[in-house]
What we know:
Low-confidence stretches: none
Oligomer: single chain
Structural class: alpha+beta
Largest sheet: 6 strands, antiparallel
Number of helices: 4
Number of domains: 1
Amino acid sequence: MNDTRPTTDYVMLGRQLSALLDTRDWVTNTSQMAAFIFQQVPDLNWAGFYLQRESRVLRLGPFQGQPACNPIGFEEGVCGAAARTGETQRVEDVHAFPGHIACDAASRSELVIPLIKEGRVWGVLDLDSPLPGRFAVEDQQGIEALCQILIEQSDLPDLSG
C-alpha cells in the first residue's frame, strides 16, 4: 500500500459536489461529477461512468481522461465485477486482478463503485490511478458518499431500454 498517499477531505468535496449538482439532469450531473472528481482527487488518470444501457453490458458514459474501453460485459474486468456483484471493487494492483481490462497501460490501481437505483445496477463510477495501492478504505468510503449525493440529486432514468 502507498503510505505517502495524500489525504482528501471528502466531507468538503461532498458539500462542493452537492452545490455543483444544481440540476436533476443525469447527463449534466454525471458529466460534472466526472470532471470534479478528476480535478479534486489526486493521482487519478481516469474518472468516469459506465452505464447499463442493455442487459448485463456497461456502455461508456461521461468521463475525464484518455479514450476508454467500450462496451464492458458484467463478466469482464473490475467494472464488470462491480456491476455483477453490486459491491464496490477496490483493487490495489489491477495486473493481479483476474480478467482485468487494460484500457490504459499506465493504470495500476482501480476503484469502482456501483450506482444502484431501485435495487438494480444503473451504472458504475470507475476511478483509475497510475499508482499501485492508491485507494484506501477512506477513499472508498468518501467516493461512495459522493456517489450517494449524485444518486439523491439526479433523476436516473431506466437506461436498459
